[in-house]
Amino acid sequence: MGLLYVRTLPGALKCLQLLFNLIAFICVAATGVSARGDAFLVASIGAFIITLLLLLIRIMDLDTTMNLPWMKIEFGYCVIWSIFYHITATKVIDTYVDGYIAGGVFGLLAMILYIIDAIDKFRTGL
Question: Would you call 67 helix, strand, or coil by DSSP?
Answer without folding.
Answer: coil
